[in-house]
Request: fold
Amino acid sequence: MFKIKVIKKFAMFFRTSIKLTTITIISAFLIISLVAFFYKPIYAVTLNGELIGYTENKSKLQNEINKYMEGEEKEGVAFRQIDAVPEYTLCLLKKDIVPNEEEIYEKVTQNGTQYYKYYAITDNGKEKLYVSTFKDAESVIKKLKDKNSVNKNDIGIVEKYDTKTKEFTSVDKCVSKLYEAPKVVYTASASSGYVSGSSSAKVDIDITLIRPISGVITSRFGSRESIRSSPHRGLDIAAPTGTPIKAAASGTVVSAGYSGSYGNMILISHGNGLQTLYGHCSVLNVSKGQAVTQGQIIGKVGTTGNVTGPHLHLEVRINGVLYNPQNYVY
Ligand SMILES: [Zn+2]
Reply:
């Protein structure tokens, strides 16, 4: 009798348990369905701790941001930096929350720093000009080598990254700006027999030269004009025909006479390898072998030889090399 009672009690308890479990499962299921009906998992995106929006597709959004940082879609842009990296937190939020990836992208990238990539062309290590591609930089160097530019071995390329881009120069413009003509070597002729080259450098001389005439400089040493086939060998000073020409320093007349494109010219040796030449004279007042003093009138301005108007063509030669007269006088 007692045993039956125990069994009955146990059976009742067992039934109650089953009922309770069933109710619990059903309730849980209902709650989950309810949550699933009203809520969804979504990533909240924060930037510097500030909530800037939501995305359901975190990897797609981050890919877009990565692409921006790689600077993919814009030419010349090497990479970009963004001030802060977005952070993603998975949340369960009401379904009416709208993802706003575009807005997030804008906010993340708006304070980005763009780095441009370009190339500097250097001469002796100094940045001279800029081009946008390595190919351009290479062809500038190649062209300078082809033209045998004096500085061909000093030209280099430096890859540059900067937040600002530079003004780019075309390949041909770079070449013409950087080109340095090789020193002109003149063939020494038997009659003049003095000149072997020219130099833009300045060599110190102990002798002080004075201006042979005063007038307007119309062509400088080394200038290239359409009427010339080679760089200008001297300095042209325009003055009316008949203007007296003074010896720039004392010395000895090496030659005085007509000489091709120089017309009537005088060459004076001042010692220590220094010589001065006066071309296109109308009148010659000295002759070969004559000693002259500084300031002595040696001839007069004229238009003999290759000229477009009356002027004195003045040359300075040191040990047979042409130098810029303006380094010593005028
Ligand atoms: Zn001249």
Remarks:
- The chain has a mean pLDDT of 87.
